[in-house]
Amino acid sequence: MAAYPPGGTYFDNGKRSFTQVPMNTSKENAISTSEYLEASEALTGLFDMLGQTAFSPIKKDMIQNIKPASFQHPNIKCSNSRGHDFTARALRRNLTQPNEELSVSFRDAYGLTLKQYHSFIIKPIFSAAMSACPYRKDFYGKLGDDEGRVKKDLDEWLRALEDRVKVLNEFLAKPEAKW
């Protein structure tokens, strides 16, 4: 059973997409909290496409972080930007490197984003998940039947996610965001 409508892609699944999360440019690119949290929850479904068993710890960690944090930013209360950055970097690299397997892309993204924050207990769990990535062709096939449309929709979704992660990371780097 496909996770997308007939003729569509995974990104047409009816759940909130990062392309549908408004950013208010007149208010320092404020991101709407409720829409962002909905898109964040929808993002976790991609981990089912990567391997429900192997990626369940990553998905669980991300879901636990989809909740309000203790800081305020105009219309934003979510601090799960590391997991989003990890996902965006892995998928962007894989999309732009058409001969690279997902395991390589995800391993690279893990080293650039999450690894430094994980203990010696957590690192092997993530490493095992990276090794359990499906083959590239199988993953992209789960996202839709039309390869060109899948790549187009994934690129649009990634651009929206990357834009929002950038805004959050810039905010989190500010002194007033240190709690």
UniProtKB/TrEMBL annotation:
Gene Ontology cellular-component terms for this entry are: cytosol; membrane
List the coiled-coil residues: none
Domain Glycolipid transfer protein residue range list: 31-67, 82-144
Q: Which SUPFAM superfamilies match?
A: Glycolipid transfer protein, GLTP
Has UniProt tagged this entry with the keyword Cell membrane?
no
UniProt keyword Transport present: yes
**UniProt KW keywords:** Transport
Q: Which InterPro entries match?
A: GLTP_sf, Glycolipid_transfer_prot_dom
Where are the bilayer-spanning segments?
none
Q: Which GO terms describe its molecular function?
A: ceramide 1-phosphate binding; ceramide 1-phosphate transfer activity
Write the protein's name.
Answer: Glycolipid transfer protein domain-containing protein
Per the UniProt entry, what species is this protein from, by scientific name?
A: Friedmanniomyces endolithicus
